[in-house]
Batch of 4 targets.
Target 1
Amino acid sequence: MSESESGPQTISDKMRVSFAFGEVGDNVALNIFQFLVFTFYFCVVKLPVLWISLAFILWSVWNAINDPVVGYLSDKTQSKRGRRVPWMMAAIIPLGIVVILLFTPPIVLNSDLVNFIYLLVILMVFDTVYTAVNLNYNALFSEMFINMEDRSRTGKIRISCVMLATIFAFVFPTLIIDDLTNRKGNTAVTLSQYQITGVLAAIVIFVTYFFLLKWGVREPKEFSKDAETALSFTSTIKASFKNKSFLWFLLPTLGTWMVIGITPALAPLFMTYAVGIEDSELIGLVLLILFLSAAASTPLWEKIRVKKGARMSGMVGVVVWAIGGLLLAFSTSFEMAAIVAIIDGIGLGGGLYFYDQCIAEIIDEDEINLGTRRSGIYYAVLNFLIKFSAIANFIIIGIVFSSADWQTYTPNPGVDTIFALRFLMGIFPLILLVISFIGLYFYPIHGERLMENRRKLTELHEQKGISS
């Protein structure tokens, strides 16, 4: 059987597009969170940066428990709707609600302690419901789209949807919120504008996930019995961390997601005070150029993957990304930032492209070795690492801001603070992307090993199809 014929079912274009559309809701939730939460609590709520960092550190404790448990339980779930869909159906409405609640703290009480507790609780609730949706959605990608052709075709649409969501999350708020950093001190107006943004984001989440669940998901039958043969929780964790391919993949995952996270989190402050762009719409325009460039670069990264593999796409991507990010960090005008955002965006496109392709290859090889497809636990570990990257970012931001004497937000920061912003936007990401390059260089699933895995996987799925 040829690769294009392998796999348990025929995927229609309607299902492919509807599935990819789920990326819009997923990324609107995540990117609104990454883009606005730090700026909101630092500049509008005026919570000291060390309080914010402490909330994220404590959140990490819950995160360490929540993600692996949800992934394990998802792999063990048995229902008429399969293993993944019930989790998504249960969590989508709470996810939309909590996105609104992110921007409704008890600010009128004027208490750092109360606002800190609120932030901590809302972080934990957001993490729980987002994990239930995101983990199972990503697990379905590796299970619904088995062969490389399907993954590539669907992956291109997914990246386009990621970019659509990213543009909405990073640009649309700048059209609603006049003063992202609350520089003018009109807290009541700025607060209401953040809350309107949260409501609109929730509507987008509800609508896009409706399309996903209505027309975009169908769990493959050959995996229906895998819930019965799933390993114990301890065994499945041990097996995952004995997978050398997965361990090497964790390096670029952590590195690239830290860069993806810190860039939008600091963009309002960086653009305002380091680059000198005070107009929110112009800040949004720079981000728009960056992410449109990332979307437009997808055919380039696909061409590299076809010729050299997903690993090479990632390696070239992080190099371009590091160069673009460094240039952006030391931009001194809107015009310069807009031009170098093109380079940064092309690199970002490569950094996004390799991720789904490589983790699917890892899950394929794991299924070959164990006979059971354990997508949930792998995405659980990755989800934990992605959220840990956010925690690490906020710890670094807290340390750097404190060193630059910016523990509490005040407009018109000094030279040290501006350099701190440039460091966090350029030099720090450069270090992370070098680490990512090393991880991708030693990532072993490529060439003959990848082709052999494809052959074995086809045989295994034929056997599962017969037995089911």
Target 2
Amino acid sequence: MSKRNPDIPWVEKYRPKSIKEMALPTARLGRQRVKLDEELTNFLNQFFEERKRVNKENKRIREFNRTAIEKDQKEEKRIATEKAAVLLEGPPGIGKTSIVYALANDFNMEVIETNASDTRTRSTLERRLKETTKSRGIMDFITESKEKLILIDEIDGIYGVQDRGAIPTVIDLIQNTQFPIIMCSNEYKTNLQTLYNKIKRYEVHALPKKEVIKIAKNILKKENITTLKNEYLELIIDKNNGDLRGVINDIQGIGQGKIEGDIKELILSLRRDNLEEIFTLIRDLFKVTSLREARNLTNKSDVDYNFLYKWINENLLTFIKSNRELTNAFENLSLADEIFGRIRTTQYWGLLPYFFDLFAGGVALSRKETPISKGFQRVVFPRYRSGTYFSLMSVERDFVDKIKRRYEISQIDFIQDFLPFLKILCGTSRKQLKNVTDWLDLDAKEKKLLK
């Protein structure tokens, strides 16, 4: 294991500090292929030149307006929107945010980041960004410290009725900014067309596989991890489908974990971004103060409930220190185990909420004396064995995959809602059973699940 601090998430630990350190993804502006580092460097240089020119001209205009009568007064100039902001569009995890931070480091700038999907209404966006984009802080004048680079992430998260006025707000902010703005989005959205018409939109593509392999191997070498074979590394990369962040999260979890058995089966059981979501979920779960909060967390999660049970079991000692609290936590886990055994035996999935309440809420709420750590707490990968009791059977996984060809559905939804519904539907007649079987192209084993 590396002598470096193991508690730092590798996506942060190995985030490039300079554009020159990065393997940059390919990008297009319209139909033209461009070099993203050159484009963004030119964007910042041109912004500061334009800001200097516009501010100098506005100073003259303000001096003129002080003595001119109202009808003769001139309107102050604005930085052209195409010179004030750009948009990076591409799938999550390919390095858009890393590019922005690396660029800021190269220009000795401070990144001011906000997430548009969290600040979607006009009033919230204005409150969050308006002062940032218009003025410097007092300390900036005193110390002549860093310029600001505004990063608005997930701009495509703005949509729907409640967001009316949000896009005009963004455009207004761009037109009045004193700092360059870079926006990021995951995909093209028709409701952003007004914004697209006013700024440059770069389509950013995922890195080629060979570059991702090179980056992953370099990280594993620095972490002194030699147990991850090339075939497993390639499987992780293929599964993440261009998501570099997902690859790094996966190799950290697997590389640092106590894994026994079939690693290939483990890798295939993890969906894209699974580890990142689990890391966050586990840390948040041990901060809850009520059963309702615990339920909300697990309800929002798409993590396999069987796998989540194992993660909580493995990480108990990190978050709970008191012997009395641990006793309560392990008693709740034991009861959850017993309930799940009944579920698998009787196929009565109505008991699943009690299983959740005991292994998630009951365990997390056992922490009453142990204070919540303010620092980073490392979440470790659970011990994993092939054929473990707490896993979907292979026939169930195959069934889920076939349903996912038609609907986006989580494993929890499949077990708790979809499978019971199909059983009732197929139990009404042989014709219905045949219709569902043909529709989903089920084999004999999968068909048996419906009887």
Target 3
Amino acid sequence: MAHSVSLSKYSVGVGDRFAQEAKAQLRACILAADAGITVTPVWNKSNREHMIIGSEPQSARAAADKAVRELAWKHDYHVDADHINLKTVQRFIEPCDFFTIDVADLIGQPAEETAIRTFIEKHPELVGTLTIPGVDGSFKSTREEVSQIARQYVAAVHEAGRIYRHIEHEKGKGNFIAEVSMDETNSPQTPLELLIILAAIADDGIPIQTIAPKFTGRFNKGVDYEGNLDQFTREFSADVAVLAFAVKQYGLPANLKLSVHSGSDKFSIYRPMREALQKFGAGVHLKTAGTTWLEELIGLAEAGGEGFEASKEIYSEAYAHRDELCGPYISVIAIDPIRLPQPAEVEAWSSRQFVSALRHDPSNAEYNSDFRQLLHIGFKVAAKMGARYLNLISEAKETIAKNVTENLFERHIKPLFIGA
């Protein structure tokens, strides 16, 4: 499957909720390039985020283009229509060249039995004993097991195909990068399930360059990985091997790679991920998304004065509306209300205490992951402040930019792509 807009081996999805930090984010990629590793920035923003903030997809493109122009970035960059479906894709068609097609909600929806039978008959190689280079042991599956897995995913893949073809019709073949996302669901996909999904995607003619499966363990917003690290390491390595196998077996794009959603701040898995990527010579797409907005809050708190007062006000409002804020993110957060400080307590904090609680530094005894997660999803509060918030971050621009660049390069790009 040919494609002309091609995603490079290593890429990082960077969210920029208020479209103010593109230069600071790009500086992190420049530091990586200076260290000898090209990491392609992909500015991503979902329809939900645009609706909350009241922005248009064009604003993400404009901010990215401006940063690239002003910093004279000579490598690739992309703008991602994040988590789109057929209802929301249209407004992203013109400004975006990367589309994260989200069909997680359709997992488990029944496909027609004729479609399942056709799939099984087309793929006898999936039944029986299957050996994949780079995976210890072999997969053993019966026709019934493969049918059952296909029933889980074929309808979702068909919908991804419909969305892909709509984008292709609007933008033209080869003019964009397609990703299929199945991560925002409760059950992780096994390597065998991933292979069956990839076979179905190839059958549907979707030339995906990245796929975002649901991995084992918890990928909560903006905090470290929670789960069995050994199991994750085995599964991630097996998934990388499965992708390499599927590329050869089913003719998917040669640069096909895993996309790790809510991958920001997963410090404990970066090393095993890097080792698996090196073992297979594979690439990866890491989505860091909302961490930049948290660095804005940290920068405001560090700046003191009105900025710090606004940070405390945002927490107080987020605390008061936590149930409403948590609702849309329930599969990717785990907040213990008991561990959330009372707003009155936070009001009495110093700037240093606020920053220590919020900045993701596990070695700091004052770091509070529940506080951090609530503020991660609390950008809606800042959005309601409108121009006031934008003016405050403009006033604290230098402090914020330093935090944004350092966070992205030191805590994410360096340990995953370079090695600390």
Target 4
Amino acid sequence: MRVNENFGPKDFDRLVDEENATASRLIFTDETIFKMEQEKVFAKAWLYVGHESEILNVGDYVTRQMATDPVILTRGEDGKAHVLHNACSHRGAIVCNKDSGNARGFTCPYHGWVFGLDGSLKATADDQSVYEGKVDFSTLNLKKTARVDSYAGLIFATWNDKAPDLGDYLGDARWYLDMYHNRTPGGMEIIGEPQRWIADANWKLGALNFGADGPHAVKVHGPVTVAAIGVPMSLVRESLTGSPSVSMGNGHNGIISQVPAEYHDQFPPYLGSHPDMVELYKKHLGPEQNQFLSYLLAGVQTMFPNFSSIQSLMAFDPMGMPVSFMNIRVWQPVSPTKTEIWNWFLVDKEAPEDFKRESMLSGIRSFSVGGTFDQDDSEAWSSITRGINGNIGQQGDVNFQMALAFRDKTIPDFPGPGRAYPSNYAEVTEFDVLLEWQKYMRS
């Protein structure tokens, strides 16, 4: 099968085979599909653009991407967050070239048009009287996203004025976002600037991996996990095969890797967390959420389409204790076979400053542009791109058929919302990301 400009919504039924848990390799390599995604997925879904802690004051701004479109996230004079298309309404030039800052507005460097923090046109290069009243300047504000909203400090935006409310879009995922991002009265804050790097892979590979691919962890990350956490390989595998994966609905999915119960006497609860934070977790979260956090090795999840996060812990000093970190990222599509990864670290606002520093270092050494885990994953994703991008390679399928053995094995008494499966190896939640993608593409 080859994709062309006449490819229609029903054709996407063939690209993702729900019954057999397989998908065409074309969805990771084809240029036409990539272009359709921009309209079908990224122009319709809620996309992560920034964190409340990045724009605390009026005039604060950061420049970001919503898929292939540049945007500015600002704190307006009205105190609200605004997301503006970073392209002048006059000729389309970028109006803000800095990564972040504080400003009273934005001036186009080409013709000098001036826009307010809310995107409203304030002035043109010449007196507007020269247009002799023939131009309606109220139509020439910067284009804004249809909606902006936040949850647990995470700011999302959508171009789609018919999108559901963000709360409804996140649905059951909010319970898990609370567990990782909203577990103290102050919530989380961004530490450091975002890292950005290019991976030679389709954006969906990262979203699937975090959505989450349990089976790769032992093969790809096993040795460094043993070294960084100080646990035997058998425990790593047992924690993966015996910990739950969760489908949260609307394409949001993840895994919760935990210390197996028989090893609880060998690990203190809340390993890697600062003691002062533990008391806040116990007060601010429910008992079920604390049950997961108390023996958490890694909580990994993807909010459809391209926002992912991981909480884990690392110890790079053989004599030291592991330190937990929270990493969030966006898989920004660049081309069918290139993704720009935007990567941030967060920490509880109430945490001591020395712990914040140690947490960030723990994350940088593992999940970052130079981190051991990201280097592992990027090499694997790049090899997939090389393997399936040729004439013969594009003709096959990618296989998620572990899901066939697990899709009917939900955990009946699971303490959290959503559909839970008894293993990180289930591949059900990972494949659910593609099923949600299919819904958007054939809509």
